[in-house]
Design goal:
By secondary structure, the chain is an alpha/beta fold. Helices cover about 50% and strands about 10% of the residues. It has three domains: about 1-280, Alpha-Beta Complex (2-enoyl-CoA Hydratase, Chain A, domain 1), CATH 3.90.226.10; about 315-490, NAD(P)-binding Rossmann-like Domain (Rossmann fold, 3-Layer(aba) Sandwich); about 495-640 and about 640-705, N-(1-d-carboxylethyl)-l-norvaline Dehydrogenase, domain 2. Strands 11-10-9-12-13-14-15-16 form an eight-stranded mixed beta sheet, sandwiched between helices. Strands 1-2-3-4-6-8 form a six-stranded mixed beta sheet, sandwiched between helices. A two-stranded parallel ribbon has the order 5-7. Strand 12, helix 16 (about 400-415) and strand 13 (about 420-425) form a beta-alpha-beta unit. Helix 20 packs across helix 22 and helix 21 packs across helix 26.
Length: about 700
């Protein structure tokens, strides 16, 4: 795992080479091997200096999360972290110079190894990233990162790297002080040897081990630092609502650890890490954000019998908001895009949307004018379906109407090759029904993108009854090419994400109808970790839209339609009050042109406050549980897998990552308690809280959806 070599000049080279893993990772075996190699080099009198590098394209990619997932007690965590911590302290106090020759990406513990060395050199490559990303998975750097980095670059400068997981390229790392030199890749080891032989012997004492050490920029208790520390602590609490313990634990490590010697600080760091590593929040975040998300991005559900396809040219039907967004992300990913609408003027409006997005990037210095021009050249606008000839996949994004979609399908298929995949971007209409309008239903697949397309990473790939493996596989290939995350879902009305998420704003409306204070409703959602309160969110995507969905369902189902509890609120807001959402400047909120939005005072007239208000926890439970119940129904019906349900809820509508997702929330609470609470809510609130039999059986057996 650690290749050890020594040259005739007395320079030992320790090369990380964890051959039994896809990347160099820190686990019990590799840490032990590294410790042995470091001690061997220190003990050998012939060794004058040591280079730490990698035999693989990456340097070290951080800790092995499989190891962390298995931690059950704080004692287990302490056993894991203390070895590497001790090794790095031995290294930096050995009296021999160590230099990190960082030849590839160094994340987490990989960067922490570099921080302990007496010199850090990094190869000059745009592909290399340096970061301490542990906070994004509910953890903290546990090999000295919270103690060494503030002592190196100052507390204020270190905070973004530790509390946000900020990533930097080599040049930025040099500017920030994370590394000492950026070196041409083919000169990296040569320069490392040169430094060891000429300067290294004079730089074997780390600043914090020397006399009269002072923190760059001031210690914790100096006025400037304590002020910025307090501001950042307040910002973190406002952002996390106390649901995510990792940022707070990192702040505690810095505040407490940087007031004592580094060895005591390292012990503080290890104890805080042990607390995080055993927390449910961290387990949830690792499972969903790393493992489940990783499976989705690797296309784990893609049919294996279909060769991978790389697309060059795609078509988009409809240049409205969704179609324009699709044209932009396609062109921005290097694809040629044919954007079709009923007129050249309408199609050009779609391209103008891409121009505005690109212009904004140029203005911020993120894109060159040349790159902007090249991207726009890839978008061809037309009102002629014949221009779709040669497209390898076509995405229909026209108005959400069966007849309009049918006509677009017929016109496109008339000019497309027989094996061209046709995808519908519908958000609610079942794919099987839409495919009946196609001459080639086996090539017909759902690709449900989320708005705004340029920002939202999730795509639901929907398999209809007659959709072939080839159509599913190629749709997933395109999603990956667009740098988005696909989840495979089954066919039903609204599919998975809209179906489960839709109950969140509906439940808020039901609470409003019951006389619950709208401020309580909004605060309950915010404090539960939702990215936006439910009534405000409804204003954003339009009360009128939900009203139209209700009216369409009434028209489609006729006498079979069952009135829903939220219908009266939608009708009152649109028909009686004329308040359709933010786009019209008035919805559940008022939107004054020169002021901050505020809840509409008139709500009290139409939905009078009940004399007795429910508690905050009860409102939170209703808003959050109703989403998980519907997700559980989708899993029970085979619409979506449990892990994809979690990924979809995080990426599709911002379900709190601390809970792991809509399904992981059930696992975190425990199926037995969740079912009991839902049974109580069913009696009080109605059938929308009725759990599926699959979940009831799990509660009886004491089992979980995910491990």
């Amino acid at each position: 795992m650690i290749d050890y070599q020594m040259d005739q000049q007395g320079i030992a080279t320790l090369s990380w080479n964890v051959a039994d893993h896809p990347m160099n990772v820190l686990n019990q075996a590799s840490i032990a091997a590294f410790d042995a190699a470091v001690r061997r080099a220190i003990a050998d009198e012939k060794v004058k200096g040591v280079i730490i590098t990698s035999a693989r394209p990456e340097f070290v990619a951080g800790g092995d999360l499989d190891l962390i997932r298995r931690i059950r007690t704080p004692a287990e965590s302490m056993d894991i972290t203390k070895t590497l911590t001790a090794t790095l302290r031995t290294l930096e106090r050995s009296g021999k110079p160590f230099v990190a020759a960082i030849n590839g990406t160094a994340l987490g513990g990989g960067l922490e190894i570099g921080l302990a060395c007496h010199r850090r050199l990094v190869a000059d490559s745009p592909k290399i990233e340096l970061s301490l990303p542990e906070v994004t998975l509910g953890l903290l750097p546990a090999a000295g990162g919270t103690q060494r980095l503030p002592r190196m670059i100052g507390i204020k400068s270190a905070l973004p790297y530790l509390t946000e997981g900020r990533k930097v390229a080599p040049a930025k790392a040099l500017e920030a002080g994370l590394v000492d030199e950026v070196v041409a890749a083919d000169q990296l080891l040569t320069r490392a040897r040169q430094w060891l032989l000429t300067e290294g012997a004079d730089q074997v004492v780390k600043p914090w081990d020397g006399k009269n050490f002072k923190f760059p920029g001031g210690a914790v208790q100096t006025p400037g630092v304590i002020q910025i520390y307090a501001v950042i602590a307040g910002q973190i609490l406002a952002k996390t609502q106390g649901l995510y313990p990792a940022p707070e634990a990192i702040l505690a490590c810095i505040y407490d650890g940087c007031q004592v010697d580094i060895d005591t600080g390292l012990k503080i760091e290890q104890r805080q890490f042990a607390r995080l590593a055993t927390s449910t929040t961290t387990k949830n975040m690792i499972r969903t954000l790393f493992y489940s998300m990783g499976d989705a991005n690797r296309l784990a559900d893609r049919p294996k019998n279909v060769p991978t396809r790389q697309f060059r040219k795609v078509g988009v039907l409809g240049a409205g908001m969704m179609g324009a967004g699709l044209a932009y992300v396609g062109a921005n990913s290097g694809l040629d895009v044919v954007l079709v609408d009923v007129s050249l003027e309408a199609a050009q409006k779609g391209k103008t949307y891409a121009e505005k997005l690109l212009d904004a990037q140029v203005a911020k210095g993120r894109l060159t004018a040349e790159k902007r021009a090249q991207t726009l050249l890839r978008i061809q606008v037309t009102d002629d379906y014949a221009q779709l000839t040669g497209c390898e996949l076509v995405i229909e994004a026209v108005f959400e109407n069966r007849e309009i979609k049918a006509e677009a399908t017929r016109q496109a298929e008339a000019v497309l090759a027989a094996d061209t995949i046709f995808a519908s971007n519908t958000s609610t209409l079942p794919i099987t029904g839409l495919a009946e309008m196609s001459a080639r239903p086996e090539n017909f697949v759902g690709m449900h993108f989320f708005s705004p397309v340029d920002k939202m990473p999730l795509v639901e790939v929907v398999r209809g009854k007659r959709t072939s493996d080839t159509a599913v596989a190629q749709a997933m290939d395109l999603v990956k090419q667009l740098r988005k995350t696909p989840i495979l879902v089954g066919d039903c009305h609204a599919f998975y994400a809209n179906r489960a998420f839709g109950l969140f704003p509906y439940e808020a409306m039901i609470l409003l109808k019951e006389g619950v204070n709208p401020n309580l409703i909004e605060n309950a959602a915010r404090l539960a970790g939702m990215p936006m309160p439910a009534l405000a969110l409804t204003d954003e995507f339009s009360i009128e839209l939900l009203y139209k969905v209700m009216k369409q369902a009434q028209a489609d189902q006729g006498k079979r339609y069952r009135e829903q509890p939220q219908d009266i609120v939608l009708s009152a807001m649109v028909e009686t009050c004329g308040r359709i959402g933010r786009k019209d400047g008035k919805g559940f909120y008022d939107y004054p042109a020169d002021g901050k939005k505020r809840l509409w005072p008139g709500l009290a007239e139409y939905f009078p406050l009940a004399a007795q208000q429910p508690g905050l926890e009860e409102v939170q439970m209703r808003l959050m549980f109703v989403q998980s119940v519907e997700a559980a129904r989708c899993v029970a019906e085979g619409i979506v897998s449990a892990k994809n349900a979690d990924v979809g809820s995080l990426l599709g509508w911002g379900f709190p990552a601390a809970l792991g997702g809509a399904i992981s929330q059930i696992d975190s609470i425990g199926a037995t308690r969740f079912v009991a609470e839902c049974d109580r809510l069913t009696l009080v609130c109605g059938e929308r809280f009725h759990v599926p039999q699959q979940l009831r059986d799990m509660a009886a057996k004491g089992t979980r959806y995910l491990e």
